[in-house]
Each structure stands twice: as structure tokens, then as C-alpha cells.
Specification:
Elements (H helix, E strand, L loop, with lengths): L24 H18 L1 H6 L1 H29 L3 H33 L16 H11 L5 H4 L6 H7 L2 H17 L5 H22 L2 H16 L2 H5 L1 H25 L4 H7 L1 H10 L6 H10 L4 H14 L2 H17 L6 H14 L9 H13 L14 H26 L5 H10 L23
Length: about 450
């Protein structure tokens, strides 16, 4: 029987930390992003035509998200000693998610009231017309109820959940399947072994797809700048600057305080995940980094079942960046349209946002739909006011995705520590040495005779 190869046993040349800087993924990603910005700026029509390049890469990543989530959750649940742990991890994750969402909403609310970026705009709601994609987003937002993310969790068919790429539905099916697989005992052991083998194949496929990441980032950024123009960054610069600044404050000080309580340095954690952040920056989608994020967190020593449940559910229920955006954008529109909002009305907005923020991460436009749903539900702020920020929403979506990624990374570490399953010394050692491998930690399933591949 051949032993499973562990990433820790890989040779030095397999470790990205030992590669020259010009061979690192993040270097080529940054180069592609800068090239895309220049292309879209100097040749707008050519940049706009490159949109399919970026969307094709994101589609290739999304192709793997459902299998990765399913295999990680099922493999994690099948490996735990007790099913009680699964329920405990899920409950603790949801409790932390609610606390994180509330904190992000409050930070955004305070920032927009202190700096008042919408003061002096004096836009008349009657002059605003919903057109194009913005009008479609509002229609989708108006059709959503506060409870939609609960009813949408149950798929009409198992195949449909995977075909549509609905993460919440895939999670629901994966948890039930993993529990059933664990419950049948020895009868399910061959299938558990198959799950581990298939996991190795899927992550190797992910490695192949990631080779095209710089090309995808180049196309996505060239399209964004070519279509919307750099001038859109200055037309609403105050709001855009406040959003990025508030998000940075939230990550450094709020999430930083959480990691400090875990005795982990937030800056080292962000550096460890630099490739994932650059990938998200280039594609404007936090989903593009989901599979690699799960791998990186497992490499820090977080158990697979905690990673699978917390990260996957966090992409629906723990959207710190989207929460910041909702509170900032809603009050900005009120300020810009001279709509007075009392403290009580703002707290009412916050209560609605706690619900509408769920499920607004992952893809560009989802946060905009959540904003439309919030304004339509409350009714005190004119929904047509979203036209005021539609021009820069694409640029704000990047910041939303980056903050969501940071928030889910920290959430996973918190839940692992809460479960007494986090070796802080091991985490800090990994962060200091920055040994960022792209393959999941290899664990030998019973009866396996396969060798898991390591990153080439």
C-alpha cells in the first residue's frame, strides 16, 4: 500500500515560498491587472471587447466551486468522530456570522454619518430614471422577500443545485449527504475513500484552471476600465474613497482585533492570502478564490470539516464587505436626495439589512440587488436613487469581494479556535514562513492506496 504524500513532505522547489518572485502567481496577477487597466484606458473599445476573456475564466472557476464544496463538506463530515460536532460547528459559525454582519453594518453606518459623502448633491428623486441593468437589478430586488435565502436553501433536485451553481443549495445537500454517509458506518467507507480520491483529482483540475488566472484578470480589468472609464472613479470619488477606507479600517482594526484575540497577526494572515486577494481584485468575484481559500486554511491546520462548513456557508451568511456597502450606500442615497433619516429609521434600515445582506456575495451585481431589496422593503429612501451610484458599483464590488474574503478567513479561524481545534503556534509558524501550497493537506483515508499529487 502506497502512502499518501503530504504537502509537508514536498521538496523545496514545490513550495511557492521558495520560488523566485517572477514565478509567483501574485506577481503575474498584478502584472495582468496593471496591463488590463492600461489597455482599457488607452484603448477603451479594445478593452471592452475583452469582457468574454474575464467572464470565461470566472465561469471555469465556478465550474469547480460546487464539486469543491461538496467534496470538502462530505469528506470533512465523514472524518469527524461525532455528528454532534457538525451541528456544533454550524451553530457557532452562524452565531459568529451574525455578530460580524452587525459589526460591519454599524461601522458603515457610523462612517457615512460622520463623513456625509452625499451632502450637497441635492439630487431630485423625480429626475432619476431606472434604466438598463440598474432597472433590472431593482426589479430583482423588489421581488425578493426577507426570508428568500431560507426557502432558497432547499433545492428542487440535487442535480439542479449543482447545475445552477447555487452554493447554499449545494451546502444543504452536502451536509445531508455527509451525515447520511457517516450514519451508515462501515458500509459507506468505500465511498468515503472515493471522496478523498476524487478530491485530489478536482484540486489538480483547479491547479490547471488557475494557470489561466492572469489572462482572466487581464480581460476582466480591461473590460471594466474600457466600459466604465477611469473618469467614473473620480465622479463619485468621495463615496468610493470612504467605502475603501472604511473597509480597510474594518479589516485592520475590527478583524485585526479578532485575530489579535487569537494571537494571530492580521497582516501576516493577509500576506499569506495575497494570491487570493489579487485574484479577487482582478475578477471582482470572491467566488473565484473560494477553492484556494479552503486549501490555504486547511494548510494552516484548520480541520477540513470546519473549513468546509464555515467557508462555504460564510459565502452566503458572512458578507462583511457587502454589509459595509449596504449601510454606506443606503444612507448616501438618503443624503444625496435630501431624504431625512432619524436614528430610529437608520436602525430600522440596519435591521432589514441584516437579512437582505445574506446571499449578496460572490458575483458582481448581487450587492446592488441586495441594496435595491433593502430600499424597496423599507420605503423611506427612494429606490431610484441607486442610479446615483450605479456608475461606480463595479469598482465597489471589488472592495466588497476583498472584504468578504478577509471576513470569511477570520471567521474560519475563530470557529476553529472556538472548537479547540486550532493550533495557534502552527498557524503563526505557517504565516511567518509563508508556505503557501495550492494542494489540500493530504490525509490518508482508510484502505487507500493512492498518492495525492503535490503542486508542481
Amino acid at each position: 500500500m502506497a502512502a499518501l504524500a503530504s504537502p509537508a513532505s514536498a521538496s523545496a522547489h514545490d513550495d511557492p515560498a521558495h520560488r523566485p518572485w517572477y514565478k509567483q502567481l501574485y506577481f503575474w496577477m498584478l502584472t495582468a491587472i496593471v496591463s488590463g487597466i492600461l489597455t482599457g484606458w488607452l484603448w477603451p473599445s479594445g478593452g471592452a471587447a475583452l469582457g468574454p476573456v474575464g467572464t470565461t475564466f470566472v465561469a471555469a472557476i465556478k465550474m469547480l466551486i460546487a464539486p469543491v464544496v461538496f467534496l470538502t463538506i462530505v469528506g470533512g463530515i465523514a472524518s469527524v468522530d461525532s455528528l454532534k460536532r457538525v451541528g456544533r460547528v454550524g451553530l457557532k459559525s452562524l452565531l459568529y456570522f451574525q455578530a460580524g454582519t452587525l459589526a460591519a453594518l454599524l461601522v458603515g453606518l457610523v462612517a457615512v454619518n460622520v463623513f456625509q459623502p452625499g451632502a450637497g448633491v441635492h439630487a431630485h428623486p423625480g429626475d432619476l430614471r431606472l434604466t438598463g441593468d440598474a432597472g433590472q437589478y431593482v426589479k430583482e430586488g423588489e421581488s425578493q422577500e426577507w426570508w428568500h435565502f431560507l426557502t432558497d436553501a432547499v433545492p428542487t433536485s440535487a442535480v439542479g443545485a449543482f447545475a445552477e451553481g447555487n452554493i447554499l443549495q449545494v451546502i444543504f445537500f452536502s451536509v445531508l449527504f455527509g451525515i447520511a454517509l457517516k450514519a451508515v458506518g462501515p458500509l459507506g467507507e468505500p465511498l468515503v475513500d472515493g471522496v478523498h480520491r476524487l478530491t485530489a483529482v478536482v484540486f489538480k483540475l483547479l491547479h490547471f484552471v488557475m494557470l489561466a488566472a492572469p489572462v482572466g484578470a487581464f480581460g476582466a480589468m480591461a473590460f471594466t476600465i474600457g466600459t466604465y472609464g477611469i473618469s467614473t472613479l473620480t465622479s463619485l470619488g468621495r463615496l468610493l474613497g470612504l467605502f475603501y477606507g472604511t473597509s480597510a479600517f474594518f479589516v485592520v482594526f475590527v478583524l485585526g482585533a479578532v485575530t489579535a484575540a487569537l494571537r494571530i497577526n492580521i497582516f501576516r494572515l493577509m500576506r499569506y492570502l495575497r494570491e487570493e486577494f489579487v485574484l479577487v481584485l482582478g475578477t471582482s468575484s470572491s467566488e473565484s478564490a473560494l477553492p484556494r481559500l479552503m486549501v490555504k486554511l486547511e494548510n494552516l491546520g484548520v480541520p477540513r470539516d470546519i473549513v468546509g462548513l464555515t467557508v462555504a456557508t460564510g459565502y452566503t451568511f458572512n458578507l462583511d464587505g457587502s454589509s459595509l456597502y449596504l449601510s454606506l450606500a443606503a444612507v448616501y442615497i438618503a443624503q444625496a436626495t435630501d431624504t431625512p433619516l432619524s436614528v430610529g429609521q437608520q436602525l430600522g434600515l440596519l435591521a432589514v439589512m441584516i437579512l437582505t445582506s445574506k446571499g449578496s456575495g460572490g458575483v458582481t451585481g448581487a450587492g446592488f440587488i441586495a441594496l435595491a431589496a433593502t430600499l424597496s422593503t423599507v420605503g423611506t429612501v427612494p429606490a431610484a436613487g441607486i442610479m446615483l451610484i450605479f456608475g461606480i458599483d463595479k469598482f465597489m464590488s471589488e472592495c466588497r469581494a476583498l472584504t468578504n474574503l478577509a471576513g470569511n478567513s477570520v471567521a474560519t479561524l475563530v470557529v476553529a479556535r472556538w472548537e479547540n481545534a486550532l493550533d495557534t503556534e502552527r498557524v503563526n509558524d505557517a504565516l511567518r514562513t509563508a508556505k503557501n501550497r495550492s494542494e489540500p493537506p493530504a490525509k490518508e483515508p482508510a484502505g487507500s492506496s493512492v498518492t495525492l499529487p503535490t503542486q508542481a
